[in-house]
Amino acid sequence: MKLPNIIITGTPGSGKTSHAEEFVSRHPEFKHINVSEYAKLNGCIEGYDKDRDSSIVDEDKLLDLLEPLANKGGIVIDWHCCEIFPERWIDLVVVIRCDNSILYDRLVNRGYSENKISENIECEIMCVLLFEAQENYNKQIVVELHSEDLNMLDNNIDRLDQWLNNWLDNNN
Ligand SMILES: Nc1ncnc2c1ncn2[C@@H]1O[C@H](COP(=O)(O)OP(=O)(O)OP(=O)(O)O)[C@@H](O)[C@H]1O
Questions:
Q1: Helix, strand or coil for residue 113?
Q2: CATH among 3.30.930.10, 3.40.50.300, 3.30.230.10, 3.30.70.3460 for 6-163
């Protein structure tokens, strides 16, 4: 059976990994690719950005490694950046959104620096990840989902289940 490839993107702390994990726990035939972890485990880190306090991913190497998985289908890519993934790979782009004050508390709880918190809150206010998704993929495959409490998370995954059922009906 053919499976779709999904990107789950959004500002750090918005809830990408929570969504990807819940979706894959309901659909174990999918593989969750948490790009930050995957890049570290697979030697795709090419440096460190001191200002941003984050690793720099070797995107070419990452894409080479992901290509066979994407061609097979059934990957859920979880990263705060979506534009590097070729359009032909991707069937759905989910942009997770979060209320600023809730996001702020989540980032404080993670012990992020004031700079890193401000940068991420600004990114959320300016809808950076939503625009990035809409500019790089057909708008019809981009969906914005809010993730402020567990009820919302559950409803979002129900929506993704429905989308998946429709996709499977239309593509198999
Ligand atoms: N809908 C939600 N309701 C309650 N808590 C949530 C929800 N979504 C995420 N969280 C919590 O917010 C924190 C950040 O979530 P998560 O790690 O899924 O975000 P992320 O976008 O993957 O972050 P990063 O990009 O840094 O990996 C976690 O503590 C998680 O439990």
A1: coil
A2: 3.40.50.300
